[in-house]
Queue: 2 jobs
Job 1
Amino acid sequence: MSEKFNCRIKNDLGELAKISKAANEFLEPLNLDPKIVYGVDLILEEMLTNVITHGYEDEGTHEIDVSIGLDEDEVSIVLEDDGAPFNPLSLPWASHSADADELMEEGLGIHFVRNMMNAMQYRREDEKNILEVCIDL
Amino acid sequence: MDIIEEKSNDIAVFKLNGSLDSNTSPAFEEKVVAIIEGGTSKIIVDFSGLDYISSAGLRVLNLASVKLKPSNGNLVLCCLQDYVREVFEIAGFDQFLPIVATMEDATAKFN
């Protein structure tokens, strides 16, 4: 079993609905655990919101490549953007005792992603941020 | 997403259907802030039809909770699906927002 989905979106928050719909059309026939599908949706929304909101210093249009791959034991999500260098793995982990207020400040989105994924890798290549997030099946 | 707003006695009830994400949260924020600023201090959010929430949705609930503090108001959530509830737990929101199983339990919180 190996399936792949690719989509290119613009750096506009309005594009999130489009990618969510397209990703779900890809995932639905695969009969995955609904919890995995929820995780993919959440990772896409939180990480893309971050890139679109904080990644660009100019007002111009940029493209972000999104791919989702499925094999026997994991789903992998890869995001490629030409925004400012940003490694989400460099953010501090929220402590176990962190309350909701602290999490809001430290970044609730990345906190969710860290709780939903099993592995995350970042690299900067050809002036692009490439983030891969994997969820075990 | 659909937002159905009802008022029973002095309790405002919001029933959310679909996804509370970065696209749909602003519309919910507008409604909930308007009702709090209009003087309502008792709010129930019925999540039975909600199948997805992201940090954008949680931010609106946090904002509502903060805005209710001066009037000693309360925000009660009911009928969460398992995955949605898990997101509240990951965020620690279950520590400060009352989350109950049914609409009856939610109404009882205000009696």
Job 2
Amino acid sequence: MSNELVAPDKFFLNRFGMNNGALERILGAALERKADYADLYFEYRSAEGLGLEESMVNHTSKSVSQGVGVRVCAEDRTGYAYSDEVTIDRMRLAAEAARAIADQRGTTAAAVQVGAPVARHALYDLDSTPLQVPVQERARLLSEIDRVVRASDPRVKNVMASFACEQKIVMIVNSDGQIAADVQPLCRLNVTVIADDGKGRQVGSYGGGGRVEWNYFIENDRWREYALEAARQAIVNLDAVDAPAGEMIVVLGPGWPGILLHEAIGHGLEGDFNRKGVSAFANRIGQKVASELCTVIDDGTIPNRRGSLNVDDEGTPTSRTVLIEKGILRGYLQDRMNARLMKMAPTGNGRRESFAHSPMPRMTNTFMLNGESTPEEIMKSVKNGLYAVSFGGGQVDITNGKFVFSASEAYLIEDGRVTRPVKGATLIGNGPDVLTRVSMVGNNLALDSGVGNCGKDGQTVPVGVGLPTIRIDGITVGGTRA
Amino acid sequence: MAAVDIELANWALDEARRKGASAAEVLCVSAESLSAGVRMGEVEKLKSSRERRLGLRVFCGQSSATSSTAELERDSLADFIANTVELARLSAADPWAGLPDPSMHPKSLPELSLADPDSGIVGADRALEIARSAENAALKFDPRMKNSEGAEFSSGRGQILFANSQGFSGEYSGTSYTLVVQPIAQDGDTMQQGFWYTSNRRLSKLEDAESVGITAAKRAIRRLGARKIKTMRAPIVFDPDMAAGLIRSIAGAASGTSLYKGASFLVGQLGNPIAAPGVTIVDDALIPGGLGSKPFDGEGLPTSRRKVVDKGVLASYLLDCYSARKLGLAPTGNAGRSVGEAPGVSTTNLYLEPGSYTPAQIIGSVRQGLYLTETIGFGVNLVTGDYSRGAGGIWIENGELAYPVNEITIAGNLKEMIAAVEMIGNDLNWRSSTVAPTIKIAEMTIAGA
């Protein structure tokens, strides 16, 4: 590990020729018109991507970005300015732009004293990152994936594989004098397969990753599992019949179908929407919003997960937050500003896409705890329904609570048995209502394989989800077979 | 701090060749913006930004790499260029890769009026005033307008400079102004958001702030009291924004990148009828002041006006150089580019040519069906054409808008949907770079209760 990884705060101070005195003066400038809070977010990100198509690793890319964001908060107002030129002059100009919002409304005067770095978790202190693995070795793995997939079935017509890895070094300094810094590795291996049987064409995708070393993909032949899973999905769908339309019993498989929780519950529990009273969950803490079989957690502290962080993007250590406990709504996801305004504690969920964005409450890894049923019992209990095991994206309207998520692999359940595969279909439900219909929860909680991205207000951040097998008694399935 | 100019671009191209590249491209982007938001009449946020980045694509024979950086001092840039060339050497030689045929670069560039001659970045006070007036109009429109996600006004100015090692260089700059309003209507326990916006390259051409606010309020209120309907098959009238989403999907399936991978339901359909005879879809990069207009594409090729679908027949694919070579066709000037990415296909100003019906005539033709005003989720599969999305809108009974519906889905297949376009409206309005008038699709599956 190079020195810059050992002390990320020193990395910025050295790189941009700054010291605590300079940081204090810029924060002082930010607070000049009296605010409640100000912070500086420094980011240096390096990323590399490799892509294979038609059996060639013909896409290679590399990027370096750096910048600083200055934020000033006064009551519920936020001023934000950023620049990719990290100089004292630019930061001072940014501080002047950001403080225009404050307007003498805050409580904090201009004197700031920067202290020692705050404690953080150690969830992904890697010996090396995939960025340090020779490009040739990464390229060889993509070629091997291509070979394995093509050899697996003659109906495979095209294979696309990609490997993306990045490392972010961040430092947050705030007007409470706290300084936090982190090195955040992240990588992802993806495989997409197109299959054609002469009658039709289908696509399958799978992948995974996290804040992990290169060996993660090699051990237990994970790369092979991703490759064959993508091929299997494409081939299964060649035989898919039209999906049913209408309300029916749906069984969700373990893992990635946890996207249900992310859309139906998670966004609606983000602090900003609840402070403003614009979420369908506003003012409902303590109320029953799910069946008592449901306990839902957001946990940013699971080692090496895609959605985990040592500290959030405001420097608060991440935590494990109980959102729903045995059906009762317990908590919201908070960043500093919304926590302060709602007189709650920050939960370490203040996140941002990059230095070009102001932070807001976001999820980390969101999942449901195990119940007591076996997956077999759940399946046997359904006479007619849909079994959905893999999903594309989802979306929610947090104000009216309606959410969707789109199945990319699903089957009919007939007399307690999984029968024919059906074409992809969107499922639509109502967030505050859907978990009240959960009648069985399996004992097989799985987290997703590490591919999730979440978009909110134009900002994308990596997240995770998880779910045991569950049975939902009635959700609308958007097939074509009316 | 180094300026982004043609001198730096040429130096970077020379440096790439000194490091061993056989060909190279440089794309420099610099941008500034200011956005200001109010919520419930109070100032909520101000955001100011400055960015400039340099993107490279270098070739070593048929092997290539792309890269981008914000570190523009020549010392660090020289190292960065060396690393990029090294990365290119490690990638596979791809027989279809390469710069365009040099004879295809334009000798002169069209003037497209992309920058507002009268206004630059709008200052915070004025921006807040515009946002406040829009939100205020929404909130006072009706007593049920009780909450708000706010209103935001933003203005931006950007410059793009592109140069390659075979002598092409070009630059252009543009401005953009956008006002977005998101008020919330509340009735008892239920809340519905309204959303409306206006966007233009000229400040003076924006829709009036109050009228944007009032439209947003009306859109929120008409959703109140929405119910679920029974599962059935019925005609669907797509409002202009929803119809625009549909033609965006058609353009995605007509993009060379999807086609050469076999990842499109339009593979092998060039020259065939794919849509109802009234359907003509045009991509026009040359509309003066157009939000999607550009004088040259992401590889330095001339842009044009082109029919993608002409009277129902798939008339042209949308191609960059790479996909054109793969498909044995000529590029269409549709290379899109963002700094640090390899070129990919993008549309410019994409629209469905208007028909002769008024929206009222279209709605009036439906005995029982859905007037679609919103979709949610991503349930469009361009490989198969399968379409299944969450939906909301207003139920049509005997040709009249009767009551709002939500928590339903609409499903079909894009191939069948575009063949079943029965009526096309006369209400084309350039609010975005992809636009369409109201359209009616004969029948789709609606899933509800």
